[in-house]
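Hello K.,

You asked for the raw outputs rather than the summary table, so here they are, unedited. I folded two proteins back to back in the same session to keep the settings identical. This is the first:
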Amino acid sequence: MIVHRSKKSRVKHKASYPAYEHRVSFYKIPPTENVTIEEFEGWAIDRLQVLREIDNAKMKGLKPDEVNERLNKVVAKYLPLREGNEQDIRKDVVSHFVLRMAYCNPADRKWFITQERSLLDYRLTDVSITDFLEENDLDYPTLSKEEYDSVQDDLKAVAETSLVFDRSGAVNKIVPLLAKLGPHSFHKMPFEEAAELVAQRRVLVRGGQAYIYHEQLVSIIIGRFQGHLAEALLHTYKALPQSRERFQRLTHFLDTVSKQYLGVDYSQSRTTSITGNVTPDQVDGFAKQSFPQCMRNMHRRLRTDHHLKHAGRMQYGLFLKGIGMSLEDALNFWRAEFTRVRTAQQFESQYAYNVRHHYGKEGKSANYTPYSCVKIISSPPVGSGETHGCPYRQDLDTLARDLQNQGISGSTTKNIIELSQGGHFTIACAKHFEALHAGTTDISVVHPNGYFEMSVKYHAAKQSGQPLPANLTGNTAPSAAPPSAAASSSSSSSSSTPSIPTDTPAPSSIKTDTDSTMADSTPSGPTDTPSSD
C-alpha cells in the first residue's frame, strides 16, 4: 500500500487488481497500489463507524431483524458494497487493512475480531455461499451419491434437529426441506474444523469427517475467518514497529483512531437556538434537568466545595463552553464560586488563566473542544478529592444512590449498574437518559454535550406539545460525523495499535511522500495550562 499526500499524485489502479477481485472475501491479498492519505484515514474512520454500530446494536440486545435494519442504514452510508462497483471493494479492502494495523495490539484484537466477524456474517446473507467458497479457496466438497447413500438415514436424523431454525431464528418447514435433501445438500470436512457444531451435536461425524448441511457452512466460514484474522493481527503486531519511525504521520493516526470520537463537533454550541447563550444563573436549572451524570457530579461538587481540581475544571469548563456559555460568563461563573473560599486576587492569579485558555485566549490560542465520552472513559482513574471522569466506571455505590435519589426504579437502577460493571459505560448512560426522559428509546450517547442537546430538545418538545425528535424515539440511526469531517480530526483522543494477516507484507512496504505532515486537528483540551488546584 503506497500512501500519497494528495489525490493528484495517485496513480489510478488497474481494474483487474487481485485484491479487489471479489466483493466479499477473507482479505488475504493486501493492497499494494497507491492510496492517498485522505483515503487511508477517511476510509478507516468510515469502517470504524460501521464496526462501532455493530457493537452498539449487540450491546443493546436488539433482535436480529432490528440489528440488520440498523446495519443496512450505516453500511449504505459508510461502507457500501454494490455489485460490480470496484471502488466500493477498494474502499472495503483498504479500510480493513488500515484497521488491522490500528487494532493489532493484544488488548484491542478481541474487539476488532468480534466486529469483523459480525460484519462478514451480515454480508454473507447477500452472496452465494457456493461462490464464496470457490473464490476464497475453501475446499469443502459435497458428497458423492455413494457416500450420501451410506449415511443418508443418519444425515436426515441430524438434519431434523439442525434445520428447525434458519439464520433469522424463524421456524422452517421441516418436511419439505428433508424431502429435498441429497448429496448436494451436504459438505464434508475434518471434524476439528466444525468443532463448535460437533460440540452442539448438530453434525454427523464418521471416520474423522464431519458432514455439514449446506446452510451450516456460514458458521464454519466465520470460524475460519476468525482464525485467519487472529493470526494476521499477530503478524502485524510483530511487523509494525519496523515502520513507526519512518512514517510518523501514519503511525500517529493508527495509534489514535481506535479511541477517536467520530461524532458531532461541539467546539461551538449547537443548542443556543433553543437555550440562547447559557448564563451562570441558568446552570443550576440545566444541571438538574439536562446535565449528564458526569457533569451533575462536578456541578454538585463545585457548589459544595466551591472548588474543582484541574482535571475537573477542564472537563466541566469545556462542557459549559460547548453548551453556550461565553468567556465573560464563564469567568463570572467560576469567579463567583471560587471566591466564596478565596480572594478575588487569588482567583485572578491562579485560575482565570485556565478559563481564558479554554476559549483560546491564552497559550496556543487554540479552539479547544469539549471532551467526548471516549476521551473521558479512557482517561486515567480519578485520584483523591477529584470528581471528573465517567461515573459509570467509578464508585457504583454512589451512582446507585444518585439513581435512586433521581426517582429511577430499582429494576432500572440494577440494569444500569450491571451495564457499568460489564464495562458498557455509554450504554449505561443511555439507559439513564431513557429513565429520566419518558418515551425515549434506543438512545445513543457518545458525548456529554450530545446528551445535553438531546435533553434540551426533549424538554422543549414536551413544553410545546410537539412530537419528540426522531433520534429520541429510535426511528433513526445514530448520527455521526461525515467522512470528510472525521478524516480531518485524526488526533482527537488517545491510542491503540493495528494489524495484518499472515500472508500480508510487513508495514514497511507502506510508502508516503516525504513532505506529508500530520494535518492540524481540533485540540480536545489544553495541554499547556497551569494546573493550579
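The second followed immediately with the same parameters:
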Amino acid sequence: ELMAHRSLGEEPSRSKHFISVDVGTGSVRCGLWNETGHLIATATHPLQTWSEKEDFYEQSSEDVWSSVCLVTNKVIKEAGVSPSTVKGVGFDATCSLVVLGKDDEPVSVSPSHDDKKNIILWMDHRAIKEANDINALGHDALKYVGNCISPEMETPKLLWLKRHHPECWSRANKFLDLVDFLTYKATDDDTRSLCTITCKINYLPVPDSPNEITDAKGWCPDFFKLIGLEDLTNDGFSKIGKRVGPIGHPVGKGLTSKAASELGLQEGTPVALGLIDAHAGGVGAIGAPLNPEVPITLEELTRRLVVVAGSSACHMAVSLDPKFISGIWGPYYGAMIPELWLTEGGQSAVGVLVDMILESHVDTPKFKEEANKLGISIFELLDQKIASHAKAVGYPFTGMCTREMHVLPYFHGNRSPRADPTLQGAITGLTLNYHNLPVLYLSVIQALCHGTRHIMSEMAKSGYDIRTIILTGGFAKNKTFLQELADITQCTVVLPREENAVLLGGAVIAAVAAGEFQTMVDAMTQMSATGATFPPTKEEKLKSFHDAKHKIFLLQYEHQQMYKELMKDFSSL
C-alpha cells in the first residue's frame, strides 16, 4: 500500500523534511513531513505475525527492519525529495520485546526455537502467571504501574523467558523494547529511551535528572532480585539499558553509513530517541492549540486527555506532580513530555470488539447487503437505522435507544482501572427483533465510552481536571463514537488536523533531535493543529440517561463478581 503527494507550492530541494516511522501491530508506516507539520508522503508495508499457540504472538526483527527500509525508500522516491533535505528521523513502535545475541543476531523467543521469531508482540499474554507472581510480591516499585504490572509489559515476559526458555535466556545479550531496537539498528548506539524503560521495564524516576543522555540510575536492583531476575542487574543492567536519555534527544552520531544506505538517507542524519506508538500519538495530538490566542503552557496540557483509539485504546494525561492511581499505569516521569508526569489508562479491546460483534451477529449479512445496494458503509446504515428507530419509538435523542440493552466491554479483560486481564464481557437485553443489531452496535459504542468515563473518574479522584479529549486513531472516523464520547463524558472531543497523529509524533521528535525546535512543547505547538470538534449535548435529560447507564455499567462488573463467587466451587470440574 502506498500513498504519496506533494504539498502545493513546496520546493522539495529547498525544504526541510523529517522522516517518521511507525511500527504498528500489523504494518510499518513511514511519513515525510515538513517543519509546519504537514504530511508530504506516506508508505505502508505489512508485517508478519506468528501465533502458534493461544496467547502467543511473535514477530521478526529482521522483517521489521527490512520493512522500515522499504517504506522509507518508497517515501523518498515517491515524494521526489533529496535525502539531503531530511534533517531528522523519529521512530515509534509497539511495546514489543526484541531479543538479540552477542553478535546482535536474532535469538528465538518461540517454543519453536526458530531464531527469526525473536520478538514477543505487545499483545502476547503468555506471561499472565509471571505478572500475577510479581504482583503478589508487592514491591514498592509497583506503585509506578498502578500497583499492578500487566502481562503486556516487558518485565513479566522476561521472567517467562527465564523460566520457560533457558536457551533464549542463556544466549541473550540484549533485551530491547522495539523502538530502542530501531534506534540501535539505525545508529549503533544502545541508549534506551526514557519512554520505553520507564513504562515497560520498571525503570524508576530519578529526581532532578538532566535533560540529556546519562548512565541509567533508575534501576532498582532489589526489585529485580526479588522477582527472580537478578541476572539482569549485572554490568549496570547492560542487557536492558545501561544508558538512558529523554525522548527526542539525538542518539549517537546519527545514522551510520550502513543504516543510511539501507534507508536511502544520508549518513549522520540525526535520529531521535523514540516513543511507544501510543505515546507518539500523544505527542502528535496533545499540544495542538485549541485557541490561537491562548499560548500553550504545561498547566494547559494537564487539562487534556489524549485517547488513541484503534484495535485497543490508550488514554494519556500529564501532570506537574506525580499522581498514584490504583489500576492505572504511571506516574511515569518524562515518558511522553519532558518535565511532566504521564498517567496512562487503556482499554484492551475497542475496534476488535466492534468487529467481533458485527462479524458474529446473524443479521450482519443482511445489513451489509442493504448497505451495498445504497452505496454506503454498514456503519452509516446502522446509524440511519438507529435514527429511524429513535424517531419511531419517540426517543428525543438517538443515544437513548439503548435504554434496555447494556454491555460490559471486557471481552479481552480490563486494562484500566480494574487491571484484570481475566474479566469477561457481558450483554444484557438481547431480542430477536430486527433492530437488535443497530441497538447492539450503539450499546457497544456507549459501553466503550463509559469505560473512558470510568478511567477519567478515577483520575479525577487524584486531582486531574480534564476538560478536553483529543482523540486520534481509527475511531476518529466514527462520528457516532465521537458524539457519544462527548455526551457520556461531558467533555469536548477534538480531532487533530492530521489523522496520522502517531506519525506526526515521530516527526515532532525528529525535528527536536535535528535542533529545529528548542523544546518538545515548542515543536508540538508549531507542528500540530486541531480539526473537527464535537461538544457535548447540554440537555439534562440525556445527561441523566447516561448517568443511569453508567451506574448500570459499574453494576455489571459487580454482578460478574457475584456470579464467579457462586460458581467458584465448580472451577475444577
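DSSP finds 18 helices and 22 strands in the chain.

Happy to rerun anything if the numbers look odd on your end.

Regards,
P.
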